[in-house]
Design goal:
This protein has one domain: Spore Coat Polysaccharide Biosynthesis Protein SpsA, Chain A, CATH 3.90.550. The protein is about 40% helix and about 15% strand. It has a seven-stranded mixed β-sheet with strand order 3-2-1-4-6-5-7. The protein is globular and about 45 Å long. About 45% of the residues are buried.
């Protein structure tokens, strides 16, 4: 049971999955923080019953906003690092040890769980938008990325504080990568399970990919935390 790592989960209408996700994480870490992004179901109460520390937003404000709030709450306990995953069942908490093992090797400030090992299990629209986006983001960041949009990741508390995140939407993952590049942090990927089934994703591939691309250009060109710190 790890007490030096806290798990942060943004959740929207995940009542059918959130308890299992929280319980799965608690097999490996002592603290799980869930921010309920204005759900209309029992997401908050079921997460709390499963053992999470829960904050419920009165209205939906976007995945990025909810994740930023979850990270803020997670850092209050002064962990060495924070693991992040979604509450909708697309990420299996059983993969958390793979990220923890990479963290313990001490080579990287951020570890991303890549789902691209089983491409056939990914819906075609999601595969191609992720693949193309990952190639573009690889060029922009200098990292060799296979799954830039994976929300299953772990980052050092120090790096999280230096990111100065701003995104309220799905560009939050790209913002983390680009700001890690600006800060010259080391990043690596580890394979995780590819899960696409009955989970309910709020991601709209075409619309949200365009938004991510536009915001990524902004973060690359205009929002450099390394420059601001000088």
């Amino acid at each position: 049971m790890r007490r030096d790592i806290v798990t942060a989960i943004p959740a929207l209408n995940c009542a059918s999955t959130i308890a299992d996700v929280v319980a799965g994480c608690l097999q490996f870490v002592a603290t799980v923080v869930v921010v309920d992004d204005g759900s209309s179901d029992q997401t908050a109460s079921r997460a709390r019953a499963a053992g999470a520390t829960v904050e419920r937003l009165e209205r939906n404000q976007g995945k990025g906003f909810a994740l930023r709030r979850a990270l803020h709450l997670a850092l209050d306990s002064r962990p060495a690092a924070v693991a992040m995953l979604d509450g909708d069942g697309q990420h299996d908490p059983a993969d958390l040890p793979a990220l923890l093992a990479a963290w313990d090797r001490g080579r990287s400030a951020m570890i991303i769980g890549s789902r691209m090992g089983d491409a056939q299990a990914i819906p075609r629209a999601r595969f191609w938008t992720n693949y193309i986006g990952s190639r573009i983001l690889s060029r922009m960041s200098g990292f060799d990325l296979s799954d830039s949009q994976s929300g299953f990741r772990l980052a050092s508390a120090e790096l999280i504080r230096r990111w100065r995140l701003r995104s309220n939407g799905y560009a939050i993952e790209s913002e983390m990568i680009l700001k890690s590049s600006h800060l010259r942090a080391r990043l690596e990927e580890v394979p995780i399970r590819t899960i696409y089934g009955k989970e309910r994703s709020h991601f709209q591939p075409l619309r949200d990919t365009v938004r991510i691309a536009c915001e990524s250009i902004y973060f690359k060109v205009f929002d450099d935390p390394h420059r601001d710190a000088r």
